Amino acid sequence: MIEFKAECGHTVRAKDEDAGGVVRCSYCGKSANVPDPQGDELDFLFSDVQRQENEQPRRRRKQKKKAATKRKPGDLNPFAIVLRMCYAALLLIIVLVVGRKFVMPLFEEGGIQTVIKRTTPSSQVDQPKTRGRQPRRTPKPAARPGLISRNKYPNLYTTSTPSGAAIYCIQADRAPAEGRIYEISGCLRLDGVGKQRDLSDGNYIVEVVFPWGDRNLTRYPGYNDFRRSLQDADDAKRNDLLQRFFIPDEATDFFIHESDGQFSLVRQYRGVTIRNRRSRGVRALFLPRMHVGEDKGCSIEALVNNYISTDVNYSFDQDHVRSELGFYNVSESDQPFVLKTLVRIGIIPYLTSDGKLRLFKIDIDDGRFAAKLLHD
């Protein structure tokens, strides 16, 4: 039996075999459709399947959305950032290297022509067209002989060892026959090595002076005892003490000058000649005699290691000079120190084994070696 409600709300009973058919309502007399229980169950199943089919696209969309939200395009990736920075640094290095090697030379002296000469093989560079013999190539000149910086000083080069002495100069015809020149009218105070004013050709007197308390001198061994002995000595005794304490050079006179209780050591050079705006120069030595035992000579090794500047100022043929030192009986053990002295100050006295005192020197202009016999 199937029970169901008609449109009027009255309960209608129908037989099972009337399921899906039409019966008349006993209350209102209208026709009523008898429901089919099996069809309703199938409808429910169909509706469930349809609901699942509708939900699957939604799940897929959610999964895609979750996958998309895992890594957004705008998210930072540290590894990718570091890798990009490495690439940028490498590119910058390449640009700098290429620019420095190939681009910058274009803006330097010589420009593109210099770059072409560097990169073009010598066979491709334009050569002068000559028949027969090829032109002789001039060898690259060696270091200029003589005083290395001679192109920087004017016609009268003056210096002292040690440095720092006061230097005066006057024309010979304006100076007295003896004594100081620094107070005479027309006397010039020279500015120092390489900075002397330009002088006209003629004969001059040059005076190189150190106050006796100069720190460059007081460091010599026995110097303060030497000063004490000067105080009460007469002029002759003082001159003798000077000759015994200091090594000689080309000075024509060496004396002590006292003024208002101040003592000065004065080396004077007369007969300094300037010809064609050049001169032999003046190189004053205020170096002590380094006595060794009973020998009244001086130790060249001690002078070089303790009291002579290490600056290189002279260029010359050292092999030739070494052979000349051998000719003048300079011992083989002293030859390296004599060479070092000539390279640095260009002049040094030496007492040879035959008892003769010679002044070895290098010419300022051409680097020639000379040996001058001194009377000591």
What distinguishing features does this structure have?
376 residues, alpha+beta, 5-stranded antiparallel β-sheet, 16 strands, 32% helix
Account of the protein in words:
This protein is an alpha+beta fold. The protein folds into 3 domains: 1-54, no CATH class; 149-287, no CATH class; 289-376, no CATH class. The protein is 32% helix and 22% strand. It contains 9 helices and 16 strands. It has helices at 37-70, 78-103, 111-119, 215-218, 223-231, 235-245, 300-306, 318-327, 335-344; strands at 2-5, 11-14, 22-24, 31-33, 146-147, 158-161, 166-171, 188-190, 202-211, 253-259, 262-274, 282-285, 314-315, 347-351, 357-362, 369-374. It has a 5-stranded antiparallel beta sheet with strand order 8-7-9-11-10. A 3-stranded antiparallel beta sheet has the order 14-15-16, with helices on one face. A hairpin with a 5-residue loop joins strand 1 (2-5) and strand 2. Helix 5 packs antiparallel against helix 6. It is rod-shaped and about 175 Å long. The relative contact order is 0.08. The model is unreliable at 112-128 and 292-297 (pLDDT under 50).
Structural class from helices and strands? alpha+beta
As an assembly, this protein is: single chain
Helix content: 25-40%
Shape by Cα distribution: rod-shaped
Q: Main sheet?
A: 5 strands, antiparallel
Q: What distance separates the N and C termini?
A: 163 Å
Q: Specify Rg, calculated over alpha carbons.
A: 55 Å
- By DSSP (H or I, 4+ residues per run), the number of helices equals 9
Order of helices and strands: EEEEHHHEEEEEHHHEEEHEHHEEE
Uncertain ranges: 112-128, 292-297
Largest sheet: spatial strand order: 8-7-9-11-10
Number of DSSP-assigned strands? 16
Query: What is the residue-averaged pLDDT?
Result: 79
% residues in beta strands: 15-25%
Count of separate structural domains: 3
